[in-house]
Amino acid sequence: MTVPGTPVDPGAAGATGPAEVLRPPAHQVSPRAKTWWTVRAAIRWVIVIPVVTVVLAVIPAVPWAVAFLAFFVLAVPAAVHLIVMPRFRYAFHRWEINPVAVYSQAGWLTRTRVLIPVSRVQVIDTVAGPLERAFGLSTVTVTTASSAGTVRISGLPTETAQSIAASLTVSAAEDADDAT
């Protein structure tokens, strides 16, 4: 089974071998992930801002103006966060699966790249919470026996996530060079 967006076989013309695996991952997550990240963050801000404002407003020693100011002090960074974060996250979140490895890059402030050889894959999970399902998205988690050996690819279309899980399951089962 071929995973959508899987690059050319490393032995094919145009591939450079091991160096090909070490370049940045080639594929972006779904554009719908930007909306999902925005809604998820907005839900958090909609809870945090009123709670902080109300707590400050009910403390007798705190003037009402401080609670009012706190609302705006939190609302401005929240608005900036909701505008900037999804765009940066989308620009930097990448993934790739090839015959050699599962590779992901994540993070909009702190960038993390994780590369797992297919021979080390032990568990492949596909998860979609209620909000992800509302946007037709899923997360694929590929795990090894190592505590540091996990690749999470969030924001994938559900069909792509299912295809990745099926393909990796077959690839990991067929790999004769099992390193576990």
Could you describe the 3D structure shown?
By secondary structure, this protein is of the alpha+beta class. The protein is built from five helices and seven strands. A hairpin with a 6-residue loop joins β6 and β7.
Q: What key phrases describe this protein's structure?
A:
single chain; about 180 residues; alpha+beta; four-stranded antiparallel sheet; three-stranded antiparallel sheet
Question: Can you lay out the helices and strands and say which pair or pack?
Answer:
Elements lengths: L17 H5 L4 E2 L3 H27 L5 H29 L1 E4 L3 E6 L5 E6 L5 E5 L2 H5 L2 E7 L6 E8 H17 L6
Helix pairs in contact: 2-3
Describe the structure in brief.
With 180 residues, the protein is of the alpha+beta class. The protein contains five helices and seven strands.
